[in-house]
Structures are given as C-alpha cells and as structure tokens.
Amino acid sequence: MTRVKKAVTAHKRHKKVLALTKGQRATRSKLYKRAHEAMLKSLTYAYAHRRKRRGDMRRLWITRINAAARECGLTYRDLIHGLNLANVRVDRKMLSDLAVRNHEDFKSVVETAKTALAAG
After folding, report:
1. How many other C-beta atoms lie within 10 A of the C-beta of residue 14?
2. What are phi and psi of 43, to 5 degrees?
3. Over the stretch 10-33, which tens digit does the pLDDT of each residue have?
C-alpha cells in the first residue's frame, strides 16, 4: 500500500476554516483549533437565526398592519377577522407592503373588511 500524505488537503481545509472566521477577535481567527470551534458556533447561530428572522419579520408586518388599520378605525384583530369573513386571502407580508407603500389601496381592503364585519 502506498503512503498518503495529507498535508495539501489539511492545509486547504485549514485555510477554508480560517477564511470563514476572518474578522473574529484574537485567536478565533488565527489558530486553527480555536477557529474551528468558532466556525461551528457561528454556523450554528447563522442557521438558527435565519429561522428566527422569519418570526421577527412576521411581528414587524403585524405591527405595521395594526398601526395602519388603527388609522382607518379598525384593530388588527378585527381587520383579519373581517378579511376572513369576506374570503379575502391576502398574507401579512402583502398587507404590510400595502400599508406602507400604497395606503389608498390598504384603505379599500379595510373597507372590505368593515363591510364583511357589519354583514356577518
């Protein structure tokens, strides 16, 4: 069996890890062992926080919709209930975008919800 030397492969792997931890403090970006630990932790946080961001964005959308709905004389809860009664299928991201960018169209959506609430 021939001998396999791993120097080139190891060097390449070490360079990749050190590149990923570039910008971190002290030995976390200089020494391979510490950098590898930092990289694993960083990638774990990045994965978890990508999922957490979805909840953060949903909370932001709901806050924006609530603020705009209250300007039109309706609460967020009543707006969503009215839209469900009116069978209007608009997600919170689109409603939030309407509230921020196109307030007149948002008012028409609120009016639709108000008429559905009054009828049902």
Report:
1. 13
2. -70, -35
3. 999 999 999 999 999 999 999 999
